[in-house]
Amino acid sequence: MSLKATIFTAKASTINADAGRFHRHLLENQQLTPEALGTLQSRLAQDIVRTAMRDSTFYRRTYGELGIDPVALADSGAWAEIPILDRMTIKEHSDEFPTAEATERTARTAVTGGSTGEPLRTMHDARVPALALAWRMYGWWGVQPYDNLARIGRWNFGRMATLKNDVSWWPSRQVYLDAGLLTDDTMTTFHRSMTRIRPPLLEGYIGALLEFADFLERRGLRVPEPLAIASTAAPLTESARTRLENAFGAPVHDEYRSSEIGWMAGECARRDGLHVFADVRRIEVVDADGRPAAPGELGDLVITDLRNRVFPMIRYRTGDRGILRAGPCPCGLSLPLMEPPQGRTNDILHLPSGTALAHRLTAMFGTHPEAVRLFQVHQQADYSLTVRVVEGEEPGARRHIETAVSELRERIRDEVPVRIEYVESLPYTGGKTKYIISDVPTS
């Protein structure tokens, strides 16, 4: 064992014992049989509902009026009768959600980035060592908990918080690039830091990762090849995956998390679907009326945080769209699989006939991913579509792009004009990429 691994292991057994213990627990859970994992999830779900009904004003009133019995929730039909939360409900009753367990020590404020609307403020349970979830996932890619990391995302915790984090996990070293402040100067500094610590993992918002890749190409720079790249904050299209792998020389892994909930799912080394963290989250897919969708059917993602006892998030509609899989992964992990999130529920284009386009838009260049670096579909108020494309380097790229857009025209039967606009870059919101934009008023 290396000196770094020895020091890390010692700290994970002493001053960071909670994180080390939780990590070991998670590693055991991923080897449970599907039946045992289902039993564990059901027990945790009943516990979180029981806690919410006892200690949260909102749930005590709402669930009490409905006569919900936590004991009966072992039945999936009874669970599906629990009302689904939306962002507006949480915003309107946010002061009623915290439980009696929420204190300055146990609760940590969480605020969404607001790239899809007004930010939402919730709380995380600070007693849950969330980083252990990442360690488990990193291990699937060959990255160890004590390895150096480089991250690009929303990093606004201040100098003292950053210093505390660095000291806490020394001898591991972490470097950060604020996705909300991507300039030549900040990216130059980040490149130097990566070159110095040679991190096995680069993790970040996909839009910011692509921006950093473009910066390196403009400057003729390279970074030490990591073992893995991890992307989040937007759907990982095949073109974006290919672009990042060519730029950094490492496989790109998709992960699913949110500011409200935290880590929820991630790809294993096979990169064929995301493993749901079923021992800490309950992920459901429902139709527009809230009815459970069958495995393989696209619907709205509804998440329950099974470990947050300070601000319970039970059956929360995230605004994302997804598909659950039925079969196991050949990798041997018992954690169930889901398809990569298919975009947000408001990533929908409406045609004058009433037809709605959502699924498959982000995959429209999937057959020739290297033909585009990045793209965006923008629907104007008159229903016309503009496909903005940052062209890739594949020979015949424009021909492939024209073909893909022609297929889109055929799909909508030329109901509205569709034009292509070749651009040098696309805007990012805090490092996040908005693939679908619609200016059509919706009811």
Automatic annotation (TrEMBL):
Ligase recorded as keyword: yes
MF annotations from Gene Ontology: phenylacetate-CoA ligase activity
InterPro entries per the UniProt record, alphabetical: ANL_N_sf, CapK_Type1_Caps_Biosynth
Please name the top-level EC class of this enzyme.
Answer: ligase
Task: Give the classification, highest ranks.
Answer: Bacteria, Bacillati, Actinomycetota, Actinomycetes, Micrococcales
Q: Where is this region: Disordered?
A: 96-119
Bias kind Basic and acidic residues: ranges? 96-107
Protein known as: Phenylacetate-CoA ligase
EC numbers, comma separated: 6.2.1.30
Swiss-Prot/TrEMBL keywords: Ligase
